[in-house]
Write a structure and sequence with these properties.
Length: 164
């Protein structure tokens, strides 16, 4: 892993976890055996990696923040509960609602969270942050389905960073 991206992720994680429910995301399974927190770490890394490759004209800090909280829905969608039905179509709205409660969000961050499920939902993200996030999210979801304990190095770095 690239050291500069991992350090950037650690700093943003430490900032966002203060006065929020970010750590609760580690309680819920996302894809395969991957928790929502691990998924978000992977999406954060992939988003910055794509940012660097494509030399995007977007706000890098907002991209990273959106990547961390794009799935901030804070429930286990695998549990039998009618409020969890059609999770893939609905969770972005719940994530945005929860994120609005805990974070001060800019317009392009809200758009990225709300529209990250394109093309499953027909709403295309208006801003580059959302487009990159959506692509990173899809790439990571595919990886997580086939990989046991994805992003283990990144996850351990975060946990060690908390203890320091």
């Amino acid at each position: 892993m690239r050291k500069s991206i991992t350090e950037e992720i650690l700093l943003k994680y430490m900032e966002l976890r203060t006065d929020s429910r970010l750590d609760d995301m580690d309680k819920y399974i996302q894809h395969g055996s991957c928790t929502t927190l691990r998924h978000s770490l992977g999406v954060a890394y992939m988003s910055l990696y794509l940012y660097d490759i494509f030399r995007c004209k977007c706000n890098r800090d907002s991209l990273l923040k959106s990547a961390f909280i794009h799935d901030y829905y804070l429930y286990d969608w695998h549990e039998k509960d009618k409020t969890h039905s059609l999770h893939g179509f609905k969770h972005a709205k719940t994530a945005l609602k929860n994120a609005n409660e805990d974070f001060n969000l800019k317009e392009h961050e809200k758009d990225a969270i709300l529209n990250h499920m394109f093309p499953l939902i027909p709403s295309w993200p208006k801003y580059s942050e959302g487009r990159l996030l959506s692509l990173a999210d899809k790439l990571c979801a595919i990886y997580e389905i086939f990989k046991k304990n994805p992003y283990e190095d990144l996850y351990q770095m975060i946990k060690e960073g908390i203890q320091k």
